[in-house]
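Progress narrative, work stream C.
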Amino acid sequence: MPRMRAKPASHSASLGLSQAEESLRILVGTEGDSFPLMEINAGEMMEDREKVFFGVRADSRIFDLYRTLLMEPEGPAARVQPARPAPIPATTRIRIVNFVLNSKTAAGDTLEDLVKDGVFETRFALHKGEDDLKKKWAQWRNMVNKQPIDDIRDYFGEKVALYFAWLGWYTYMLVPAAVAGLVIFLSGFSLFNASQISKEICEADDILLCPRGDHGRKYQRLSDTCVFAKLTHLFDNEGTVLFAIFMALWATVFLEIWKRQRARVVLHWDLYGWDEDQEEMALELINCPDYKLRPHQHSYLRSTAILTLCLLMICLMIGMAHVLVVYRVLAAALFNSALLFQEEQVTTAVVVTGALVHYVAILIMTKVNKRVALKLCDFEKPRTFSERESKFTVKFFTLQFFAHFSSLVYIAFILGRINGHPGKSVRLAGLWRLEECHLSGCMMDLFLQMAIIMGLKQTLSNCMEYLGPWLAHKCRLIRVKLGHASEDPELRDWRRNYLLNPVNTFSLFDEFMEMMIQYGFTTIFVAAFPLAPLLALFSNLVEIRLDAIKMVRLQRRLVPRKAKDIGTWLQVLETIGVLAVIANGMVIAFTSEFIPRMVYKYHYGPCRKGADPAVDCLTGYINHSLSVFHTKDFQDPIRIEGSENVTECRYRDYRNAQDYNLSEQFWVLLAIRLVFLILFEHVALCIKLIAAWFVPDVPQSVKNKVLEDKYRTLREKICSSRKSTDV
């Protein structure tokens, strides 16, 4: 498979040629090598006015050796040699040549060293034979069509094909989750005007809420929050618990069935027994017969240092969440003093702008986290590239998880709970009051934060992911059209590949990471945002074709990599599934109004002694859930507008009206919340374990096929042994 090298031809043609010949000798190796690494045909060097291109093709003996080492691992007596061996796939050729070019030569140089020295500009594999993929796959009109996974594997290799197979299955499984979330959300509309709690809030013209924060200088009627109360009921209703349990079951079934799908695909590709370590050792031996095996090593001192640095980075991520808290507090004071918003709009404006700031912080910290994770991996000194990739995945995802979700954790479980009470508020630096939850509850804050961040990631990220490479490619083409156009069709093809956007080691990794974060948003805190699966479904339908168009039309060809699973990402998905159970249980227990409503309904409300058809069991809940504050206890009541005619106001908490200490109802609720959390998590985790046991990872048909192959191999060995004994 040809490879191209591009070098600026700013020097004279003869100088460029002499540098190229010296470089080719480095790549070919010395005459004493056991295996010639490269053979260069004279016709595979071309030049135009700007660049000199070199085509590199591997010697056929390299592939014969590769076939001997890996394609028949059972030994020469295992099976009969075919009269005409099957041709080596193009993906294997590219992979082997790329491995050789990445290795050090006898002179101690690598291709990267030559690039740094200015001998070469870049290297890339040719796009050849991609027309079928362009027609069947890399088009927007094929958005709902089945993906040609086998064709993707034949062109890009197993690693890319497994990514798209997983992404396609994930998108398919999002359909029931999206439908269930939409049903839960729409069921709130059926109770939009029928909810007893919404009725009481909308009719509470005589209940005044205490001023909230420093921006609230007047009392507000509870009935003014009528619209927000109805909107909150769309996603904070009795169906939320069932939906959270359903999503825990869905995450388990999704992963278990994916394992079965993977087993079928890998068996179909004849990679079920493939070993990655054996593959890498074979490539090392092909490149250098004197290769010395690098044993596994472990250093407790190095691991302790890496763990310490990771914890410091996690603390930095948590610190970023605190910076956002400070921003929201200061933004509330600024918006109020600058009169940019009306007083009742300040909280909403702070939530929205806070989510935007959080999104920008995520973009910045993503670049920082990647560099830190790479440095930690280099310090850890992994043995092989696959081991390095696995360790990098764990570190980078951990840092990214805290960067994306630390702010949501604050909103879900801390916001509005450490503020004190009217008349005695907790202040930041003794000056600014900490922000409160939305008037309709903290679930509205969490819903808005999730909707804004997830919406921005799905829209802006996808737009930038496509428009960036598209514009860069168009600019390159425009510059070439203004310059000299080559008449040689082969040179034009090489130049066309050169003008595509470059790819690197992280090209596929970044796609996986994007999907893992999206999966986290789809499952973690989904109880507060039941529309997350629906947004993810629409986003993935676009993402599949967007990635296909990028890889086939806008980017240089990815170097194929062999794989039989998605690697460490599977453990990441399983970890997210467990975290989702814990997070959703805590959201229902501590953030939503589900537990207080149920406790009031059966312990404090009119139905505590038995249901009465004429009375709604939640009648009086609003009055019960709001504490009383006497306005005379305000430190500066004169500043509050209308305070001369108000003797008491209400606020969301469970405190005594006399001393403002936490009331008995608060402790009862706290105990029930903890009991519910423990029960919910145990039930959900038990359901996950039962589902994982009930659905085998590997289908019986795959197990039987592998068993038959082993049996046939043993029979062939026995027959071969008997024949040799008879002779």
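Work stream C, second folded protein:
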Amino acid sequence: SSHPQQHSTTDVPAVPRVSSAGMNAAVRAVTRMGIYVGAKVFLIYEGYEGLVEGGDNIKQATWLSVSNIIQLGGTVIGSARCKAFTTRQGRLRAARNLVEHGITNLCVIGGDGSLTGADIFRAEWAGLLDELLRDGLISEEVAKANGRLNVVGLVGSIDNDFCGTDMTIGTDSALHRIMEVIDAITTTAQSHQRTFVLEVMGRHCGYLALVSGLASGADWLFIPESPPEDGWEDLMCERLGETRSRGSRLNIIIIAEGAIDRNGKPISSNYVKDVRAAGWEQKVGEGLCHHPRGASDSLQSSKMGMEAVMALLEATPDTPACVVSLSGNQSVRLPLMECVQVTKDVQKAMDEKRFDEAIQLRGRSFENNWNIYKLLAHQKPAQEKSPFSLAILNVGAPAAGMNAAVRSAVRISICRGHTVYAVSDGFEGLAKGQIREVGWHDVAGWLGRGGSMLGTKRTLPKTCMEKIVENVRKFNIQALLVIGGFEAYEGVLQLVEARGQYEELCIIMCVIPATISNNVPGTDFSLGSDTAVNAAMESCDRIKQSASGTKRRVFIVETMGGYCGYLSTVTGIAVGADAAYVYEDPFTIHDLKANVEHLTDKMKTDIQRGLVLRNEKCHEHYTTEFLYNLYSSEGKGIFDCRINVLGHLQQGGAPTPFDRNYGTKLGVKAVLWMSEKLQEAYRKGRVFANSADSACVIGLRKKVVAFSPVTELKKVTDFEHRLPQEQWWLNLRLMLKMLANYQISLTEYISGKMEHVTRRTLSIEKGF
């Protein structure tokens, strides 16, 4: 049967002491998945305090208990620090409360303290039951029936300080908040010529400071893992003075609250401000937990919540307590105590002033961020001038993050000594000779800009091949970096296929996929799609809110994406939509009828509103207008309908932190790869490259950054619909349907694997 047998077990999402955006999405997913698989689900209010106090703090949940909470910040079930739970006596009371409800599965959402507490509780469980039995507080049968406690953790901590996990719940939202503040400050500072010192949360972990420094192009950065050299004060003032003399009106200094110097002495934001005699100091602190979420927090939390329930169902007496995490876009399970151990090792390394080791223990991705930040923040003269010149262009529709990629590609090329040309207006500009050499400072301030500063067009090379070849020859371009959507990929493919005719095109080419549609083959994520999902999510949240006054209303929202349903599906999960119609998951009139009936039933509950997403090209005949007419007439007297077409809103304004960083990293990795290929293809003073692997798409595939030859990708592309033939995100649709209360078959669900966390696994090159 598609519905597992009724389990006698019961799952408990308990939220201990910290709160971060995205937690509600996790509470919702765990609750609904638990009910879905036939378990009784209890919500424990006020974290471990509620567990110890019992009574009304432990309530059985229904499907509707977690309705309409996905868009709220913080956590609806509350969280509190709890002294009592740190004592055995407190844990004894907690065990008794659980046993009284027949609860033997615990899902804990919190930071490392909360998760360590859960593991101790699990280890003591048998002993605690023996003691309750001895004192006559529980019967022999009850002790037998509840003999084992399973624990699974979800890491909720905004400063991403938990080792082994890529991103903790709340980190993405915290970064959104910091970037909003920085963007606002930037505008003020442009007018006033100021230096800003910005302090961000992170007592022991510099992750938020580091990523926001990378995403804002900050001038100076203090993180606890890598204190500045002695005498940094003079160096910093000198460095900031240089940027001023070049006409920059703004300096940003970012400092993690746990920043220290080489001797372990704290560096405060006030001290930095006094050193600089700087304009303003701004603290971005406590507000960080409690603000609206980033879309990626909702999506990740929902995925992890579903996986947590599966981990509890599949637990045996031999499985260790695990935390559920995402690696790239795959769910994984990690032994809780291994993660806690490495997290402690980092702190110990910092205490003992072994700073290089601290950075390595944070994981490869942290180390990469730090190295890329240092590389791009300040110009260092190239060791030697290289013989190569490289041209950069944007193709297709504008996508957020394009400018971040151009900026990092320009700067890393200059570090390598290459000559860099910027091309305006895509392939058309390349044909018309709109080509100019650019320097380090020409791309200053580009990171946070939306759209495309170079200008972009959809024109394909085959319409102007002769002229393109002429300019490639005239400017002696030996490498082409094309940042854009499906046309960028198709265009490079056309150039490669014309190599037989034009020797000038035997050069190195690389495509950085950048499109809100996420429809470029060779990558799981295109640059700009995160910003688009966030823009669509914010619009849908507002649309939902407008209905909170009017009862019984269904919104039909049309999203962009061409034939690709990624935007609809992921936005649907992030806002808790009732359905998302996409081209890749064919639907018939029967499905539409079932959805209308589903909404009719929903209107009989307390919720009384619905949200349905429709991708713009999901069906030739079932248009948005058609759906509106169908829903209106079928729902007559039960609910009314409204249409919203999101349109170009989805191209988003300023890029999200994810797109700024992803663009920055792709730009760096693409140029490093191109430099290597140029070296290989350089003979007798010229570049000649005509092998398949000299023209690639760079992309994130599962967990790693990969380069795929465009000629290979041609075999797996549906050119008519401008789509890759296989798309990983289709398996997310299972979750979308389950969370909206449709019957699904869990046989298609792929459980995460248990992976170990060691120094070796932390050093593996990850995509992000």
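Residues 1-9, 13-18 have pLDDT under 50 and may be disordered. No further action is required on this item.
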